[in-house]
Design brief:
single chain; mainly alpha; Multidrug-efflux Transporter Regulator, Chain: A, Domain 2; 3 domains; two-stranded antiparallel ribbon; 12 helices; DNA-binding transcriptional MerR regulator; DNA-binding transcription factor activity
Length: about 250
């Protein structure tokens, strides 16, 4: 008495494809064939497939099962390693559920981590600004994300920032300089109120890679006219800082 491949799959609660794959990767020995050429599986095959299915249900990969061999008792270290992996997976899934709850309950953006999503919800961001925030979510560490979220939430409402978003690519030098000068005051005020830590403080990429990533993102997301305004803006902010420093020494 034996079973066909289909019958074995039905008995073990798996599929024909799975049984054939177990043969391909060496987890299941090929059975003898009947006179008509069809495979005939025995109890040993049934037990082996049931054990494979049990271990995969627990979370073991087929590669891990193959390393264990056919023994009934499996190495304690393999079980402990799997337990640690499952704990990490559970933690990741729990975090995902928290984020999904935030998205569903507060209608926050799905492409940003929770630290930035809540802050960006009530802020009008251009497509470029939004994409840049996604990049920053990878560049900044926990401290930086918290500070950047506060900065986003307190983004200046000055009309000059809307002008920046709508700046024509062929804006002349006078227009770019004027815009930079008008953006300097509001930008400086927000930076003073919400200083973002150095990107190397706790960022996952380090200063060099983070700087390269930010630079690439800015070049691709913003026009040359906008980047020129941002360069001029930094110069204007330095002038304001120098003026404040000078007045403080008098």
């Amino acid at each position: 008495m034996g079973w066909s491949t289909r019958q074995l799959a039905e008995l073990t609660g798996t599929t024909l494809r799975a049984v054939r794959h177990y043969h391909e990767v060496g987890l299941l020995e090929e059975p003898e064939r009947r006179a008509n050429g069809y495979k005939q599986y025995g109890v040993a095959h049934l037990v082996r497939v049931l054990r494979i299915k049990r271990l995969t249900d627990l979370g073991f990969s087929l590669a891990q099962i193959q390393e264990m061999g056919d023994a009934d008792d499996h190495p304690e270290q393999a079980l402990r390693t799997l337990d640690a992996e499952l704990a990490e997976t559970i933690e990741r899934l729990q975090r995902a559920r928290v984020e999904l709850g935030l998205i569903l309950n507060q209608a926050v953006p799905t492409d940003l981590p929770p630290e930035l999503a809540a802050a960006a919800k009530n802020v009008k961001l251009s497509d470029a600004d939004r994409s840049f925030s996604v990049v920053m979510s990878r560049v900044l560490g926990s401290q930086g994300l918290e500070a950047y979220a506060e900065l986003l939430q307190d983004s200046p409402q000055d009309p000059s920032f809307q002008e920046f978003d709508d700046l024509p690519v062929d804006a002349d030098e006078a227009a770019r300089q004027d815009l930079a000068e008008r953006m300097a005051g509001p930008t400086r005020a927000v930076r003073v109120a919400h200083p973002v830590p150095d990107i190397a403080t706790d960022g996952p990429l380090g200063r060099k890679r983070a700087g390269e990533t930010i630079g690439t993102a800015m070049r691709e997301l913003y026009s040359r006219a906008q980047i020129d305004v941002l360069v001029r803006l930094e110069a204007e902010i330095k002038k304001l800082e120098a003026a404040e420093s000078g007045s403080g020494q008098v």
